[in-house]
Write a structure and sequence with these properties.
CATH topology of the largest domain: Rossmann fold
Shape: globular
Order of helices and strands: EEEHEEHEHEEHHEHEHEEH
Largest sheet: 6 strands, mixed
Strand content: 25-35%
CATH superfamily of the largest domain: P-loop containing nucleotide triphosphate hydrolases
Radius of gyration: 19 Å
Oligomer: single chain
Distance between the termini: 27 Å
Length: 246
């Protein structure tokens, strides 16, 4: 593994009862790198990411973040460290507007003495700046997220991560159920993250989406590591064969 890794997972094991979901898995991500995490259903992708993002503790193994051993006991601890996860179904809240989604749980507060209230004007201004950073031009930060397209929703979630200086962004099936045009836009977002020094783990079952943007591709099967491959050393056909091996 690289000595310059942003994050390393070493010998990760996870059991759910008698079922071994992960067995001896090792993964590293360098600074400003895009790593594709691929595998069939039940491969262990979601379990591995939930361990990294503080949802589950590993039953065995170690996590190193920026060279220091860490044990995240909650997603909030991982977020505070600089790891943010955008889950496919829960990236944003449709019943809230864009501004509130960007600052959800991290609202700007105006304080005078013992009194505090939401600084809506500042959050609106900062939301526009955050959206512009990902080249997403929406009509108003007060627009309801439920009115946006799938690609625009993902863009709002990515803008939020960039605004709060995320160092590692984990994207869970970010192009699933999107049109060809919107999928292309999400891939552009991911490449822009790398250009701004943010690493990504791109979880997907669609090799045609991850292959063009990933630097390396990590293949899981039945909770075990199949291998890690530089993009230039493999092909979509070869990766497909590895994923479908029984």
């Amino acid at each position: 593994m690289s000595n310059t890794s942003l994050v390393k997972l070493l010998n990760i094991h996870k059991w759910f009862g008698r079922v071994c979901a992960l067995e001896g898995v090792e993964l590293d991500v360098d600074y400003s790198e895009i790593v594709g995490l691929v595998g069939d259903n039940g491969a262990g992708k979601s379990t591995l990411i939930k361990i990294l993002s503080g949802v589950y503790p590993p039953d065995k193994g170690e996590i190193y973040w920026q060279g220091e051993k860490v044990e995240f006991s909650s997603p909030q601890e991982a977020i505070t460290a600089g790891i943010e996860t955008i889950y496919q179904e829960t990236a944003v809240v449709d019943s809230m507007n864009i501004m509130r989604n960007i600052f959800m749980g991290r609202e700007k507060i105006r304080q005078i003495g013992p009194f505090g209230w939401l600084d809506l004007k500042k959050m609106a201004r900062e939301s526009i700046k955050a959206l512009e950073k990902v080249n997403l031009h929406l009509r108003s930060p007060a627009a309801m997220v439920g009115e946006l397209s799938g690609g625009q929703r993902q863009g709002v979630a990515i803008a939020r991560a960039m605004y709060f200086k995320t160092k590692l962004l984990i994207l869970d099936e970010p192009t699933n159920n999107l049109s060809v045009k919107e999928s292309k836009r999400i891939l552009e977002f991911i490449k822009d993250l790398k250009n701004q020094g943010i690493s990504s783990i791109f979880i997907t079952h669609n090799l045609h989406h991850v292959y063009p943007v990933a630097d390396r591709i990590f293949v899981l099967s039945h909770g075990k590591e199949v291998g890690v491959y530089l993009k230039e050393d493999t092909s979509i056909d070869e990766l497909t064969e590895l994923i479908t091996l029984k």
